[in-house]
């Protein structure tokens, strides 16, 4: 792997691989788009909505990067909340925080595929990721639950 190659060249340097889940941020991404759609009652899960979504608040991503650099973490880290949710729960929660509800039925995967092609696979995939290495480092989340994260983004 590349990390091992770099480790040979720079043995005194720490190397971390950060695998980042769905980042929730006001400015861009899943939350921003979903929040806008919810305001117009146009938010709806794709497929059955039971896909797992491993997410993390943007400030927790920043905190993890800072701690990693300050404490010279080595290894592979899953930057996700310890509380993944299904896509249906994620979107219903975003709608609730926008004082809206989901009124449309789930969107068939084939229909989404017509418009978005290969991106559909990413949107419809299920990922229930464990942040074990963060937990072992006693990482303190500012927003461990989806409700905490959405309340902060709404404000």
Q: Helix share of residues?
A: 40-55%
* Largest pleated sheet: 2 strands, parallel
Helix-strand sequence: HEEHEEHEEHHHHH
Report mean pLDDT, rounded to a whole number.
91
What is the beta-strand fraction? 5-15%
Structural class: alpha/beta
How many helical stretches? 8
> Spatial order of the strands in the main sheet?
1-5
Let me know the number of strands: 6
Overall 3D shape: globular
Distance between the first and last residues' Cα: 43 Å
Low-confidence stretches: none
The radius of gyration over CA amounts to 18 Å
Structure overview:
There is one protein chain. The protein has 155 residues and is an alpha/beta fold. 46% of the residues lie in helices and 13% in strands. Strands 1-5 form a two-stranded parallel ribbon. The longest helix has 14 residues, at 58-71. The N and C termini lie far apart (43 Å). The mean pLDDT is 91.
In brief:
The chain is of the alpha/beta class and 155 residues long. It is 46% helix and 13% strand. α4 (87-97) packs parallel to α8.
